[in-house]
Design a protein that fits this description.
- The protein is of the alpha+beta class and 285 residues long.
- It is 54% helix and 12% strand.
- The chain has a five-stranded antiparallel sheet.
- Strand 1 and strand 2 form a beta hairpin.
- Helix 3 runs antiparallel to helix 4 and helix 6 packs parallel to helix 8.
- The longest helix has 61 residues.
């Protein structure tokens, strides 16, 4: 960046996306916009951006000090040359900016240089290409090819940043899909458990069957106790898991083996045979 301010050949105001900008034409034919106005338009800190530009091997040559005429009198301002505006905008992380500033950034990338060319040149082809700037020799000059390579690396890094942002969004979308699928699976499991519970209740309390009312058991004809009935159900569940035969079917087979039409009708006399039948089946699996 030059230490002495440059006096522009021409100074004017142009409008981009409805916002006014101070534009200048320099003696070497280059054009530019005032950096503070660009930063205000994009919601950026001017001092921070000026510092970053001065540290950049390529963009430091695009930042020049220019004498600007204002209503309050002349003052010096940082001006970013038109060819450097595009490179500078590419370095700004879009993913961290509010939507309105991302839209403004895209408008500047698309229209800024064209607006400057239209204002200062009758034919855009008359605008000179970015000059090769010579700096005072310090014995540490970098070859132009190195600067170009650094510029290419810088652009590649920012492209990678955009790719990482896109990948992050894809990961969040995938996580949302996995969470939704997990909820659906939990809902299906809950319904299966409800059906299983309903089936067990049907086996234990068949609809329409009155509770037995008989005199004291003297011949083994009384029905099974609740504990005996629950023990049979537990054993039948084990057999179901091993044989993959529906629980209702196993209960019907056991009742038929014991000479009854339902599991709840098995008598005390048939209790030993009922246990033996289930245990034989379990042993055969």
């Amino acid at each position: 960046m030059s230490e002495r301010p440059i006096i522009p050949v021409k100074q004017t105001h142009i409008t981009i996306a409805g916002a006014p900008f101070t534009a200048v034409l320099l003696t070497n034919g280059e054009t530019g916009l005032v950096l503070s106005e660009l930063c205000e338009f994009l919601g950026l800190l001017t001092n921070d951006q000026a510092h970053r530009l001065r540290l950049h091997p390529t963009l430091s040559t695009a930042l020049v000090l220019v004498k600007i005429e204002t209503a309050g009198g002349p003052h010096t301002a940082n001006v970013l040359l038109s060819w450097g505006i595009i490179l500078w905008l590419e370095r700004i992380r879009r993913g961290r900016r509010p939507e309105i500033y991302r839209e403004r950034l895209e408008v500047l990338q698309r229209d800024a240089r064209a607006a400057l060319s239209k204002e200062f040149f009758r034919n855009p082809s008359e605008e000179p290409p970015p000059p090769k700037r010579e700096k005072p020799s310090t014995g540490l000059e970098k070859p132009q090819s190195v600067l170009e390579a650094l510029q290419g690396i810088d652009q590649a890094v920012h492209s990678l940043g955009h790719a990482v942002e896109a990948l992050d969004q894809a990961v969040h979308s995938l996580q949302g899909a996995v969470a939704a699928d997990r909820q659906a699976q939990e809902e299906r499991l809950r319904k299966i458990e409800q059906r299983q519970q309903a089936l067990e209740e049907r086996l234990q309390r068949p609809e329409g069957r009155p509770a037995p009312s008989r005199p004291p058991d003297t011949d083994g004809s009384m029905p099974l106790t609740v504990l005996q009935h629950e023990e049979l159900i537990t054993l039948l569940r084990q057999l179901q898991r091993r044989s993959r035969v529906p629980l209702e079917s196993l209960a019907a087979q056991l009742a038929d083996h014991c000479g009854t039409d339902h599991l709840s009708a098995i008598s005390q006399a048939a209790w030993p045979e009922a246990l033996a039948w289930v245990r034989r089946r379990l042993g055969a699996q």
